[in-house]
Design goal:
With 358 residues, the protein is an alpha/beta fold. It has a single domain, classed as TIM Barrel, CATH 3.20.20. 46% of the residues lie in helices and 13% in strands. It contains 15 helices and 12 strands. The strands form 3 sheets. Strands 4-5-6-7-8-9-10-11 form an 8-stranded parallel beta barrel, surrounded by 6 helices. Strands 1-12 form a two-stranded antiparallel sheet. A two-stranded antiparallel sheet has the order 2-3. A hairpin with a 2-residue loop joins β2 and β3.
């Protein structure tokens, strides 16, 4: 595996597109949601309305092609292809960490997609540690360079601890979020990176004034696993540590319910979302929209633009069908639809005091 920030970004992209870096024993628990079937929905499939509002714009479906990459030539190609698909289909699009732009301004073009996605909701992205060490003006400049509609501040202590060259000091991130929330003239999104946002973290974020979150829960890509793969043959202690924490985190469904309980204005449910039913279940738990990352990257890698589009079309078909079959005409009705929580998800919600019925 490569060293340096450009090499690291290349490793991340390759491993996510082709490597075995999913969670091994922990799922998203989104399959623990059961929507109640309505045999008499009195709806036409054609009138099901998938539109959702996100940061002042209307999406044609409640889907974000979520943050993945940036900083290399290959990342530039992937970002532009996926952003143009988001534009074509009316989704939102998330950039990978813009830390590389701060260290190497010459790689900034790999993040610029506004020309191929002029109306798309674009989410900028910077690490919490970097936000704590940067001025608001520096973060504002990162957002402006890519024409971001909102700025994600990602929280990734588990990933960084395992990463051989990662950060070790995570103090000051809550204060940075509070500062940016006050001073940045864009929505600030607190975003995890595959380990989820539990009740305690959700309360801390609300106390810092954060109104928007991306839960990025456990059950999809393990970024601890990605860094464990990178440590192989380089750092045996980090590799062993990563093996121990590969499945660490709060599942996506639990994270979504925890953030819904705290009343965030926007909840983006990412982390292992791969099907339209996953999107439906996340929205039923309180999500505003749902994000898909590695499945669409793999589909693009294996089948090109057509392959990625087929995956996304299938997700929309499943979501629309689920909505009709539970009598939900639009996304807001889906959020209020009767649902039952079963199995391990029920245990998590009950033990954390998050269980609700309707």
């Amino acid at each position: 595996m490569a060293t340096g920030i450009e090499g690291r970004k290349g490793d991340h992209l390759t491993l996510c597109a082709t490597g075995d870096v999913g969670f091994r024993g922990q799922g998203t628990l989104l399959d623990g949601v059961r929507l109640v079937h309505d045999a008499l929905p009195e709806l036409s499939l054609d009138e099901i309305d998938l539109r959702a509002r996100l940061f002042g714009k209307v999406l044609r479906a409640p889907i974000v092609i979520a943050a993945m990459t940036g900083g290399t030539d290959e990342a530039a190609r992937v970002n532009r292809e996926l952003a143009s698909i988001a534009e074509e289909r009316g989704y939102a699009f998330g950039l990978g960490s813009q830390r590389a732009m701060m260290k190497r301004p010459d790689c900034a073009p790999s993040y610029v997609v506004r020309d191929v996605a002029p109306t798309t909701v674009i989410l900028g992205n910077i690490g919490g540690v970097q936000a704590a060490r940067s001025s608001t003006d520096e973060i504002r400049a990162l957002a402006a360079h890519v024409g971001a509609d909102a700025m994600c501040v990602h929280l990734n202590p588990a990933m960084e601890i395992v990463q051989p060259e990662g950060d070790r000091d995570f103090r000051g991130v809550a204060d940075a979020l509070a500062r940016l929330n006050r001073e940045l003239d864009l929505p600030v999104v607190a975003k995890e990176t595959g380990c989820g946002i539990g009740p305690a973290a959700a309360r801390k974020l609300r106390a810092a004034g954060v109104r928007h979150v991306d839960v990025s829960g456990a059950g999809g890509t393990s970024w601890v696993g990605v860094e464990t793969k990178r440590a192989e043959g380089r750092d045996e202690r980090k590799r062993a540590l990563g093996e121990a924490f590969w499945d660490w985190g709060v599942p996506t469904a639990v994270s979504t319910a925890a953030c819904a309980r705290e009343g965030f204005s926007t909840i983006i449910a990412t982390g292992g979302v791969a099907r339209g039913l996953d999107v439906a279940h996340a929205i039923a738990l309180g999500a505003t929209v749902s994000g898909v990352a590695r499945p669409v990257l793999k589909a693009l890698n294996e089948g090109g633009r057509a392959g990625a589009t087929r995956l996304l079309e299938a997700m929309e078909d499943e979501l629309r069908t689920a909505m009709l079959l539970c009598g939900a005409r639009d996304v807001e009705a889906l959020r209020r639809a009767p649902r039952i929580v079963v199995g391990e998800l029920g245990v998590w919600l009950r033990e954390l005091g998050l269980q609700t019925s309707r």
